[in-house]
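input
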Amino acid sequence: MERAFIYGMSVEGENFTDRVKETKRLKLDFENGINVILISPRRMGKSSIVRKVKSEITDPTIKVVFMDIYDCRSEYDFYNRFASVVMKETATKTEQVIDHIKRFLIRLTPKIAFSPEPLSELSISLGITPENYQPEEILQLPELIAKEQGIHLIICIDEFQQIGEFTNSLTVQKRLRGIWQHQRHVSYCLFGSKRHLMTKLFQNRKMPFYQFGEMMFLDKIPTSDWVTFICSRFKKQGKHISEELAERICETVENHSSYVQQLAWNVLAETDKETTKQDFDNGVKALIAQCSGLFEEQIKGLSSYQLNFIRAICKGVHTDFGSKAVLEEYNLGTKSNISRIKTALLARELIDVTSDGVFLEDPVFKLWMSR
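output
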């Protein structure tokens, strides 16, 4: 079934919009063994562009491995995920996976689960612990396999900021950087959804991964590209939306990739044949309703000062929070309180601090708060 708009997951095929320049550059980096760090706001298409480039690599001597470490909570959680995915992705059949494990992880007796469903993934539980393997041995696996197979491996790790949450995070980062920077048959593409943590990991001179590779920032897709995409998707569904209303969809959610697709779907669902302003308004109301439960959870426990700070941003204040006029108008307490408010809201991923000031990270959260 062809879906008109996709949100909440990585997209591919006709649902992948624009990113021509970024896709070309990332593919060039992959083909030339360049380490890449992808940074952008949440749900702006990082996973989608990586998967798209992976699908476009046709050179048989290049193998792209994709893994998500979102649920890894410790160093050895990561090593087990890292090793199991590398073992599976560098094999063409189950027998080769087992052979990999026997040859490269000889001290393990893994648990391998076979699903009767033909499209289900092979499940591997390696049981890597400090007692049976040193971290350095696990981190060298891609290099050993790549050399043996005569290929270049590209390891793509989603939600890489989880590394920064480990108990002994700095030690782990030093260990990873120390091993990975000397590998000649493996390169890495590291990205994640928490921009402020990713920025801390890769742009702080004191951190191990500083200047580890090319920094690639995904900007918002231009409105003109979105309008063409939205109008074409409506047309395929036998409906019509004007360019003006398509532009309003983009403007309402500030060209945020996932939200553009979600709002466009809501408006499409409201449309009979020709999209009206009422259809658009109903689509926006539906979007806010769909997200309200999440937003209610996000503001639970916020102090009155923190909520007032958010309201100030909604009213257009992005700088000079410590000025007497702003402190008094929005009841933010003392000037020294501003730094603590920012830190707390950054930790909750509610705000983004840039060179231009402080902004709400989620455009629909801003709509919800404003209403």
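quick obs: DSSP finds 16 helices and nine strands in the chain.
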